[in-house]
Amino acid sequence: MAANLDLPALKAEFARVTPIMQAAGQDAGAAEAAFKDALPKALEKITETRFRFEFLATPVRVMGDWMNGVTGLKVEENTLVLADGTIKARGTGNTHQIEADTIIFAIGDTVDKDFCVPVYNDTYMTVKEPRFPVDGLSYEAFNPDTNQSFDRVFLAGWARQASTGLVGYARRDGERAAKQ
């Protein structure tokens, strides 16, 4: 699938979001490199299907109808703001439509508050002084009612902190937590 990535569109998208990312203290070059580093390992292209990414856009409405199917996705443009010590995407009120014949909703930006692990600042709570730290990070779920970790419950990737980092970082995070 990576061989079908629309590279000119990806380059243009990073050019568009780089000033927003830099203003929030994020490294757009590292983010772009993470996408491109996977390309040499990609399987050969077997279709002319193409896909692209559009960052800092929140879905508002799927466009189309039952007879003709999906024709696009209306999105609200976002910017990055510092809120409660965390960088968050915030809507600007401006919308536009992305033409598409297929839409896959695959990424969320919040943790599931009904998962029975306490949440603070939209993040599952982890032990402040972990028994099993990895590079100074805690992966151990924390129960503030008992002031102890949940036995054998470890959090990683976006379960540890939703919508931060890149997919590759979430994978590395998961591998580190699994070693615990």
What is the secondary structure topology, with strand pairs?
Blueprint: H1 7-23, H2 28-37, E1 57-65, E2 69-83, E3 86-99, E4 119-120, E5 123-124, E6 140-143, E7 148-154, H3 167-178
Notes on the structure:
The two termini are 32 Å apart. Strands 1-2-3 form a 3-stranded antiparallel β-sheet. A two-stranded antiparallel ribbon has the order 4-5. Strands 6-7 form a two-stranded antiparallel sheet. Strand 6 (140-143) and strand 7 (148-154) form a beta hairpin. The protein contains 3 helices and 7 strands, in the order H-H-E-E-E-E-E-E-E-H. With 180 residues, the protein is an alpha+beta fold. Helix content is 22%, strand content 29%.
Portion of residues in beta strands equals 25-35%
Binned, the helix content reads 10-25%
Global morphology: globular
Number of strands: 7
Stretches where pLDDT is under 50 for at least 5 consecutive residues are none
Radius of gyration: 19 Å
Largest sheet: 3 strands, antiparallel
What's the order of the H and E elements?
HHEEEEEEEH
Query: Main sheet: which strands, in order across?
Result: 1-2-3
Overall mean confidence score, pLDDT: 82
Structural class: alpha+beta
| End-to-end Cα distance | 32 Å
